[in-house]
Amino acid sequence: MIDAPLVLADGIVRRDGVRGQTLLQPTTFALQAGDRVAITGPSGSGKSVFLRALALLDPLDAGRIMWHGAPVERAAIPRYRRNVAYIRQRPALLDGSVEDNLRYPFELRTYRDVHFDRARAASLAAQAGRGDDFLDKRASELSGGEAQIAALIRVLQLAPEVLLLDEPTASLDPVSSHAIEGLVHAWFDADPRRHASVWLSHDPAQATRMSARHLTMRAGVLDETARSEIPSAHQDHQEFGQ
Predict the structure, then answer these.
(1) Which UniProt keywords apply (predicted)?
(2) What is the pLDDT of residues 43-92, one digit of tens each?
């Protein structure tokens, strides 16, 4: 018996509530444990609309999201978002230090069963090439790359099953981009039979590095018919729920 997908988008549709324009055509997409998916396509093609719908950050106009074979009901959305984590292009950080931002999720009811582990957070920062003082830095003084690293650590420390990454390195320098990619690779490798990721990118080379399955999006249509198993160099070696 084949296990149910971690996440299944079953005929989901998104429309512009004001203009009535269909932003995401009826889409069915299955994300299995162990999948590393990249989606490329031009700006405005619907990639972010699809990913936000998959994360249940925006209401669906049709279809449903299934998680481990069961529909995600309203009461289960916080738990779903805890396990299916969305990383946006420009992270939202709170005033205060990096550590204050990393501690924030543990103040939410969804995470009342777990506690902040400073050593774990520092270890993740070290993996990204940040020094011992990174957790003490003021969020307002971080570079764009450092802010994205902090936002990713904030999610990774919560041990999600799935990462939905919405062009997380689009405006970053190569060093910061490499650090983000490295953190995601390390997270995936920690439990590849339980983890899966979807990475949106404009960069074909990055899409190759960060995936083993490559889809395209155009005019709100996710091209599942032109799937390709593309070689990956890796093979060789919101939004919190409330």
Answers:
(1) ATP-binding, Cell inner membrane, Cell membrane, Membrane, Nucleotide-binding
(2) 999 999 999 999 999 999 999 999 999 999 999 999 999 999 999 988 89
For residue 198, list its beta bridge partners.
Answer: 37, 164
Give this prediction's pTM.
0.90
DSSP assignment string, 166-214: ESTTTTS-HHHHHHHHHHHHHHHHHSTTT-EEEEE-S-HHHHHHT-SEE
Crossing angle, helix 118-127 and helix 144-156, to 10 degrees?
130
What is the CATH topology of the domain spanning 7-95+161-236? Rossmann fold (3.40.50)
Residue 88 DSSP class: -
Query: Is the CB of residue 226 less than 8 Å from the CB of residue 216?
Result: yes
Query: What is the total residue count of the chain?
Result: 242
Give which of 219, 224, 165, 223 is closest to 24, Cα–Cα: 219
Helix, coil or strand: residue 148: helix
Q: Which residues pair with 8 in a beta bridge?
A: 30, 66
**Three-state DSSP state, 122:** helix
User: Would you call 146 helix, strand, or coil by DSSP?
Assistant: helix
Q: Is 195 left (phi over 0), alpha (psi -120 to 50) or beta?
A: beta
What are the DSSP E strand ranges found in the chain? 7-15, 22-31, 36-40, 62-67, 70-71, 84-87, 162-166, 196-200, 213-218, 221-228
pLDDT per position as a tens digit, 190-235: 999 999 999 999 899 999 999 999 999 999 999 965 444 443 334 3
- Strands 22-31 and 7-15, how do they pair? antiparallel
